[in-house]
Design a protein that fits this description.
Layout: H1 8-12, H2 14-17, E1 32-40, E2 44-51, E3 56-63, H3 68-80, E4 90-96, E5 101-107, H4 114-117, H5 123-142, E6 145-146, E7 155-158, E8 163-166, E9 173-174, H6 193-196, H7 205-220, H8 231-242, H9 245-253, H10 288-297, H11 308-312, H12 318-335
């Protein structure tokens, strides 16, 4: 059972989480015009577009033919999360009769590509963006939802405005305790160990592993910190850093075992100190505080990982929290409430 927010969906009831009963009123796409392709994947093609009614730039996510329940789930989750901090906004849902395609009209964020970002992040930028990402996940988890695909490609960084948005909710799911979920979620380099050993009763902590992987990439300036060729090699890359002693304790605690022909997964590997990854180039970003945070996110045992709220309270983010508090105080002062 998740350490936090385990009862959210039971408390809010089926009206909150039962997406299969959702009735979607699709609008016509006449107001929207595609400008250029942004990207795409297994489930969708994504375009930059314009809302002709107000000339606003939007993202048009054209859904490929998939199960109706999956489309309903994504829309239900986006509507439930509307207005949440750093969560991309769903603006409209449209159906094009000639092509029989459905599209989601999303908030546009002027993104800087991860390959350009990760080698150039300053320490304060890392703190700022990871804090925003954790704020999004703290909100999302408090609403009983797991993202299940946190990775750089699903985080939009608007560097000019110092704004971040967590996007792509196609694999997100509502969390119910003691429920078995699909393990074919996430992207290989950011998959938590629970997915790699086929532990199906995972929870929100899966997202925190992925944040840890992104944080490691940021501070050590590696595009993908754990970069396996396949799922078995991905697990081996993790074992060669975190060691096999705590991995064996993790397997024993949850009654797990691995079937493999990969000899490396059956060998013993010592835990490697995080300082091993410090170089002249990345040294300015590596502090005692960030190493402590990283160590508490990248744990085999999902029950031992920091929650999003605990991570937000970590000493590493002290300056960010101070800045947030100062801005809030300034807003109160400007509104005149401070004198009341």
């Amino acid at each position: 059972m998740a350490r936090v927010h385990a009862d959210v969906n039971a408390r809010l009831g089926p009206g909150w989480y039962d997406y299969e009963s959702l009735r979607i009123d699709w609008n016509v796409p006449d107001n929207y015009e595609i400008i250029s392709r942004i990207g795409g994947g297994k489930y969708s093609e994504v375009f930059q577009g314009v809302d002709m009614s107000n000339e606003e730039t939007v993202v048009i996510k054209v859904l490929k033919p998939v199960a109706k329940r999956k489309i309903k789930r994504e829309i239900k989750i986006l509507r439930n999360l509307a207005g949440g901090p750093n969560v991309v906004g769903l603006l409209d849902v449209v159906h094009d009769s000639p092509s029989r395609s459905n599209s989601l009209i999303m908030e546009y964020v002027h993104n800087t590509d991860w390959k350009e970002l990760y080698p150039t992040f300053t320490e304060i930028e890392i703190k700022h963006y990871v804090f925003q990402l954790l704020s999004a996940l703290d909100f999302v988890h408090s609403r009983g939802i797991m993202h299940r695909d946190v990775k750089p490609g699903n985080v939009m960084f608007d560097r000019a405005r110092r704004k971040l948005r967590l996007i792509d909710w196609g694999l997100a799911e509502f969390y119910h305790p003691d429920t078995e979920y699909h393990i074919r979620v996430g992207s290989r380099y950011y998959k938590g160990p629970e997915l790699l050993v086929e532990y199906k009763k995972y929870d929100y902590s899966l997202d925190l592993w992925s944040v840890g992987c992104m944080l490691a990439s940021m501070i050590f300036r590696k595009e993908h910190f754990f970069r396996g060729r396949d799922n078995e090699d991905q697990l081996l890359r993790i074992l060669k850093v975190l060691g096999t002693d705590s991995f064996e304790r993790y397997l024993e605690k949850y009654g797990l075992f691995i079937r493999t022909d990969n000899p490396g997964l059956l060998e013993s590997h010592p835990k490697v100190s995080w300082t091993r990854f410090v170089t002249t180039d990345n040294k300015p970003n590596v502090t005692t505080e960030v190493i402590d945070l990283l160590d508490k996110l990248l744990r085999y045992d999902h029950g031992e990982r920091l929650t999003a709220a605990e991570a937000l309270s970590h000493a590493y983010f002290s300056i960010v929290r101070l800045g947030t508090a100062t801005k809030s105080a300034d807003r109160v002062s400007d509104s005149g409430f401070a004198s009341m």
